[in-house]
Structures are given as structure tokens and as C-alpha cells.
Amino acid sequence: MLFKHLRYNTIIFFRISPVDWKTSISGFSTYLRLEKGLSANSIDAYIRDVEKLRQFLDNEPSRTKLKSVQRSHIEQFLAALYDLELGPNTQNRILSGLRAFFDYCLLEELIVQSPMDLIEAPKIRRKVPTILSVDEMFTLIDSVDVNARHGYRNRGILEVLYGCGLRVSELIELKQSQVFEQAGFLRVLGKNNKERLVPIGKPALEAIRAYEQHERARVHVKREGEDILFLSARGKGLSRQMIFLMIQKLTKLLGWKKKISPHTFRHSFASHLVEGGADLRAVQEMLGHESILTTEIYTHIQKSFLAQTLERFHPFNH
Predict the structure, then answer these.
(1) Which of 17, 42, 72, 100 could form a disulfide with 38 if both were Cys (CB 3.0 to 4.6 A apart)?
(2) Which domain holds residue 59?
(3) Does 113 map to a domain?
């Protein structure tokens, strides 16, 4: 569409780009990267969510244009997600991506009203995560044979996961230069590239030193792994799957039936801190949670534990 602008008797022609899905999604991606500073993985997730809606609307007879999207279209889209048997968590994640997209469109004046207004998110039943007791945690960590292949590394991984409450993604990206031994802190790069300082205790530090001395020093390190703390046999960083399989192997050797993942260590770290009387805000800071509400799940774990203890041991219940 061409417009002309008159100024001082000079006619200037310029073109206004039409409001279309492709252009708007591309602009949204740039906005998330430059304005919000999100990681590539987070941006990809947002774009996938918006593409789901675009593809859904493309299949409609009217092939709804971006500026014509109404709340009714979003409700129909939600119904389709429900029919696909997607859980409330997945639906909420998609809705979060759509809200961010239409907020961007409002900001850029591509639309005059967000179709996400008054859209209610599906209710989520909060699940109490699996945790290990202190004794179980010590048993699992002590089950690592440091004399076995990758023994020192695996022991160090478990000590850091439990001792610092890291996400597995934070652990595999942890660098030697981010370990401040004298200060007793790690500098961790968390979600959305947000940095935080996490205390690290003596057992984890000793396990790191033992790994560096007895095992890492003998690895032929590739250039991309030069500063990575925990390395594979090929001198590169580890994958999530490698750590998950290592933990699975240990629990199988112990004969445990519990489903334990790297995240179990993070849950146990937080739960044991709360159980010991730690301030919830301090736990939130160490975990890198955006909201205190996320951290409060660990108070529910303790209430659940107390209720189970009462039911199991009180004489009136027998």
C-alpha cells in the first residue's frame, strides 16, 4: 500500500508493509532476542507456539489474518489442543507464548486489541516432586566407585547437583572459570541467560578437585571444551542424556524402584534446606526461581511428609 506525505511542497512516497503472520513472527523473534535478551532455545519455543496457532488458523475456511484474530479463535484453538490430549502444563506454556506474541503486536501497533484478553489458562494440579531422603542421597552418592571409569567425574557431578541445586542444563554448561573456590561460590548461568551466585560446600569442592586432579587432567580436551568443568571421554561437554543414564545405572545397581532424574537432586536440595529451616527467599535465590510461588512447592512437600508421618506412626491410626 502506498501513502504520500506532503511537507514543504515536497511529495515523499513510502510503503507501509502489510500486517502478515510471517513478517510479524520474524519481528517478534528479533524483539525477543534484542529487547528481551532471551536464549535461542527460548525464542524457538515461543516461535513454535505462535506457529501452532498460525497453522491452526490457516486450516480454517476463512484463513484468518493476524489483525482479524479474535478471542473466539483462541478458544477454538484451545479446544483443539484439548482434543489432542495435551496436558494443562503444555497448554499453559503455549498460551504464555501467544500472550507474549500479541503483547508485542500491540506494542508495535500491528493490532488494536489482544485476542488473549479474558482467556483463562487451564488449571494445573500441582504435583509434589520426587525427593530422596538425606540418607538415600548419601547412599546414592557413595555408590559411585571413583576407581571405575569416569568415577571421579560422576561423583563430582552428583555432589554438585545435590550440593548446589543446579539444573542439569546449568551443570553441563558449568565452566572451571565459574568456580570460585576461595569464596565458596559458583557463578551460574541460568534460564534466559540470568546469572546468579550459588554457594558451594566443602564436599562438592573436594569432589571437583579430585576429578580435576585424577581424571580431567588426563583427558585430551577439545577446543570447545577447554573451560567446561565436566567433560566426556572425547574432551567435550556432556549431554543431559549422558547424566540421566548415569543416574539410572546407579539406581538400578542399588535396586531402587523410584524414578530418579537429575532434577531429583535439585528437588532434594531445596526440600532438605526448607526442612532444615532455611529462609524461603534464600532458597529461591539459590534455585534461580523468578517467583517465590515456585519455591513454595517445597513447603508443600514438608506438609505432605508430616501428614504421612502422622498417619504412619500415630497410635490412633493403627
Answers:
(1) 42
(2) 2-107
(3) no
